[in-house]
Design a protein that fits this description.
The chain has about 375 residues and is mostly helical. The chain has two domains: about 20-215 and about 325-345, Citrate Synthase, domain 1; about 220-320, Cytochrome P450-Terp, domain 2 (Cytochrome p450-Terp, domain 2, Orthogonal Bundle). It has 16 helices and three strands. The protein has helices at about 35-40, 45-55, 60-70, 75-85, 90-105, 115-140, 155-160, 170-180, 190-200, 205-215, 220-230, 235-250, 265-280, 285-300, 310-320, 325-345, and strands at about 20-25, 30, 35. It has a three-stranded antiparallel sheet. A hairpin with a 4-residue loop joins strand 1 (about 20-25) and strand 2 (about 30). The mean pLDDT is about 95.
Length: about 375
């Protein structure tokens, strides 16, 4: 018998096959469409349809998806009452995890056929965005807002959170980040979702597992951590001094590096171009100077490149969004990818049950309790 090869963290191990996304050193694609092409020419709703249904929608199919989203967008009053009872100091990712689980009791979709699962995924898109927006308002001592007809998913989320219809720039940038975060192959949270699916559990349980996994700082939260890092500097000089000290003390610099990408995250390049334009429009070019004071030495000297979280944190900050909201916004996007993987796993299922290598004591006898030392 050939002994199985052990790879800590499953690094480099192919754990399954998927038609949903391909993460390569030189490209990232969703169902065969390059991420740059999608970012430039589609909306998040179109990408959600692509992930869930297998291809980009026609005008009719997009309209149907938008109609379904509008129908399921209002949160049940019971969910809003739960949000009111959660202490204000609870992190929003914890709130989202618990509230999505509770919302599952009000799932309007019956059945588990493929189309039922897709409709449930659209409902989860709406619920996750609604919970994030409602929590934001309640923390501001404001009442949650009903959806406003006719807005895109990104615009709706911003409207229900802030109370004003967002401008074109804010809408486009949030929409762009939702596209970029929507799917990324067999990452930790997606794999967790597929494991739950493989047990023939329900989609809501799988998505809650995904949220719980993304909550871990080694997987999600890097956009928040990156912005917290940048926010401590009032000038590029201060940032330059800090990065030198970080190099000397071998401190981790948040928003850089990736388990798969070794030569740069394709999504980071796309978002950074938009971020620079946003900073100019806002008259906040100081932040780009600070941003570059960290980035340039990391790339030029350490050959460690930014991942998408590095520009995303500052993008959300310049849009006026609170840092505690950044990873939940990641969820509002990635829920589409998680659901697509749940459906794919369910349609061709085998229980995910890997082996382990035992490294504990050799077999031994149980001594009577009086003889144990």
């Amino acid at each position: 018998m050939v002994e199985a090869i052990y790879k800590p963290g499953l690094e480099g191990v192919i754990a399954g096959e998927t038609t949903i996304a391909a993460v390569e050193q030189t490209s990232l694609s969703y169902r065969g469409y390059n991420i740059a092409d999608l970012a430039e020419n589609t909306t998040f709703e179109e990408v959600a349809h692509l992930l869930l249904y297998g291809d980009l929608p026609t005008s009719k199919q997009l309209s149907q998806l938008q109609t379904t989203l509008a129908q399921v967008r209002p949160l049940p009053q019971e969910v809003i009452q739960v949000l009111r009872k959660i202490p204000t100091d609870v992190p929003m990712m914890d709130v989202l995890r618990s509230t999505l689980s509770f919302a599952g009791h009000f799932d309007p979709v019956k059945g588990d056929a493929p189309d039922d699962l897709r409709r449930r995924a659209v409902w989860l898109m709406a619920v996750s965005a609604g919970v994030v927006a409602a929590r934001f308002r309640l923390l501001k001592n404001r009442e949650p807002l009903d959806p406003k007809p006719g807005l895109s998913h990104a615009a709706q989320l911003l409207y229900q959170a802030i109370g004003e219809e967002p401008d074109e720039t804010a809408t486009r940038l949030l929409d762009l980040t939702l596209i970029l975060y929507a799917e990324h192959e067999y990452n930790a949270s997606t794999f967790a979702t597929r494991i739950v699916a493989s047990t023939m559990s329900d989609m809501v349980s799988a998505i809650v597992a995904g949220v719980g996994t993304l909550k871990g700082p080694l997987h999600g939260g890097a956009n928040e951590a990156a912005m917290n890092m940048l926010a401590q500097f009032d000038s590029a000089d201060a940032a330059s001094k800090w990065i030198r000290e970080a190099f000397e003390k071998k401190h981790k610099v948040m928003g850089f590096g990736h388990r798969v990408y070794k030569n740069g995250d394709h999504r980071a390049h796309i978002l950074e171009d938009e971020l620079r334009t946003l900073a100019e429009q806002k008259g906040q070019t100081k932040w780009m100077e600070i941003y570059d004071a960290i980035k340039d030495p990391m790339v030029n000297e350490k050959k460690i490149y930014p991942n998408v979280d590095y520009p995303c944190g500052l993008t959300y900050y310049l849009l006026g969004l609170p840092i505690d909201m950044y990873t939940p916004l990641f969820v509002c996007s990635r829920v589409t990818g998680w659901c697509a993987h749940f459906i794919e796993q369910a349609m061709n299922n085998r229980l995910i049950r890997p082996l382990s290598r035992y490294t504990g004591p050799a077999e031994r006898k149980v001594a009577p309790i009086a003889q144990r030392v």
